[in-house]
Amino acid sequence: MKILVINCGSSSLKYQLFNMENEEVMVKGLVERIGIEGSRLVQKNNGDEFVIEQAMENHTQAVSHVFDALIDSENGVIDSLEEIDAVGHRFVHGGEKMTKSALITDEVKDAINEAAKFAPLHNPANLMGLKACEELLPNVPNVAVFDTAFHQTMPAKTYLYGIEYKYYEEDAIRKYGFHGTSHNYITNRAADLLEKSVEDTNIISAHLGNGSSITAVKNGKSFDTTMGLTPLEGLVMGTRSGDLDPAVVTYIEEKDGVSADEMNNILNKKSGVLGVSGVSSDFRDLEDAAKNGNERAQVALDMFTTRTKRYIAGYMAELENVDAIVFTGGIGENSIEMREDILKGFEQFGIKIDPEANNIRGGEHVISTADSKVKVMVIATNEELMIARDTQDLVK
């Protein structure tokens, strides 16, 4: 079975084609600047690049170029689009109705549209990609895989907010959590490496990157997570504020005459380590700036590590028994120094990092000492493979 995985943003589209007989990635690509001057597609296959630079006014045109690239006589990997058995789509928000991946139906589309109020930048873009595939591959089944679905197992005590209950009953305002596809993959892979059944596995999954979230996984299921109603809650991130006193919002709105939309933009795109440092949202730039004596860059890094420590320690208490702390995501997989800084002080809990084992980037590794009470691991995430697996299971 060959499955195409598509992840649509508002002006971009990432894709991978899988041969599910051996879960091989046959090809992967990225379309950028959809609807903007300078549209281009870059497809990679065994180190070779195939580029299409052509105007793409909408997602239907972008998907059409993806299909052209897949069957290109010189650079493609399949002879005909008929070889594609199904398409799996990443959807950011499924609300309360979508608790697991699903074959696309009118009811599923309605639920996605309903949840779009909580993800106005993402769900509509995801739907554009779906519509394009339905138009161009009318007889091929489509599957929706939701970032929020993995977290639907959280109990009320961790997903409810301390506001009037009517806002939950009437408006479904609650913590939903995100990066669920990544945390789900990490949970299953960690269980394999620990040689435990998923149902008996308790881990803390730290997906750390420009967007970051940490999830407490109890008996293989999400028990608590840092992101909330939207991906804005939790850790300080690249451009997102993370946790803050709600009064900060009303104070700035009243003092500066800022509208709700403008405030939302400030918190999502102008805050985080970018806002604190004034340097960059890229943690590598911050590390370089801090080494050169930039105090604000160092403070931004320290804020990130401090909050990460806080959540990991808190989730250890919530879970009571932890098999492993797992680092993943761009920072989690690749920043040797950040992992060290985050786990400084955890020696009091019997958690010890092996500096030599930690001196790696990516892959799958145990980086704790043999006598550490809790294993510490690095596992490279693979959200696309998880989407492909769910798609295969549902189509079969």
UniProtKB/TrEMBL annotation:
<keyword id="KW-0547">Nucleotide-binding</keyword>
<dbReference type="GO" id="GO:0006083">
    <property type="term" value="P:acetate metabolic process"/>
</dbReference>
<feature type="binding site">
    <location>
        <position position="383"/>
    </location>
    <ligand>
        <name>Mg(2+)</name>
    </ligand>
</feature>
<keyword id="KW-0418">Kinase</keyword>
<feature type="site" description="Transition state stabilizer">
    <location>
        <position position="179"/>
    </location>
</feature>
<keyword id="KW-0460">Magnesium</keyword>
<keyword id="KW-0479">Metal-binding</keyword>
<dbReference type="GO" id="GO:0005737">
    <property type="term" value="C:cytoplasm"/>
</dbReference>
<feature type="binding site">
    <location>
        <position position="90"/>
    </location>
    <ligand>
        <name>substrate</name>
    </ligand>
</feature>
<dbReference type="GO" id="GO:0008776">
    <property type="term" value="F:acetate kinase activity"/>
</dbReference>
<feature type="active site" description="Proton donor/acceptor">
    <location>
        <position position="147"/>
    </location>
</feature>
<dbReference type="Pfam" id="PF00871">
    <property type="entry name" value="Acetate_kinase"/>
</dbReference>
<dbReference type="InterPro" id="IPR023865">
    <property type="entry name" value="Aliphatic_acid_kinase_CS"/>
</dbReference>
<feature type="binding site">
    <location>
        <position position="7"/>
    </location>
    <ligand>
        <name>Mg(2+)</name>
    </ligand>
</feature>
<dbReference type="InterPro" id="IPR043129">
    <property type="entry name" value="ATPase_NBD"/>
</dbReference>
<keyword id="KW-0808">Transferase</keyword>
<dbReference type="InterPro" id="IPR004372">
    <property type="entry name" value="Ac/propionate_kinase"/>
</dbReference>
<dbReference type="GO" id="GO:0006085">
    <property type="term" value="P:acetyl-CoA biosynthetic process"/>
</dbReference>
<feature type="binding site">
    <location>
        <position position="14"/>
    </location>
    <ligand>
        <name>ATP</name>
    </ligand>
</feature>
<feature type="binding site">
    <location>
        <begin position="330"/>
        <end position="334"/>
    </location>
    <ligand>
        <name>ATP</name>
    </ligand>
</feature>
<comment type="similarity">
    <text>Belongs to the acetokinase family.</text>
</comment>
<feature type="site" description="Transition state stabilizer">
    <location>
        <position position="240"/>
    </location>
</feature>
<comment type="subunit">
    <text>Homodimer.</text>
</comment>
<dbReference type="GO" id="GO:0000287">
    <property type="term" value="F:magnesium ion binding"/>
</dbReference>
<comment type="function">
    <text>Catalyzes the formation of acetyl phosphate from acetate and ATP. Can also catalyze the reverse reaction.</text>
</comment>
<dbReference type="GO" id="GO:0005524">
    <property type="term" value="F:ATP binding"/>
</dbReference>
<comment type="pathway">
    <text>Metabolic intermediate biosynthesis; acetyl-CoA biosynthesis; acetyl-CoA from acetate: step 1/2.</text>
</comment>
<dbReference type="InterPro" id="IPR000890">
    <property type="entry name" value="Aliphatic_acid_kin_short-chain"/>
</dbReference>
<keyword id="KW-0963">Cytoplasm</keyword>
<keyword id="KW-0067">ATP-binding</keyword>
<feature type="binding site">
    <location>
        <begin position="282"/>
        <end position="284"/>
    </location>
    <ligand>
        <name>ATP</name>
    </ligand>
</feature>
<protein>
    <recommendedName>
        <fullName>Acetate kinase</fullName>
        <ecNumber>2.7.2.1</ecNumber>
    </recommendedName>
</protein>
<feature type="binding site">
    <location>
        <begin position="207"/>
        <end position="211"/>
    </location>
    <ligand>
        <name>ATP</name>
    </ligand>
</feature>
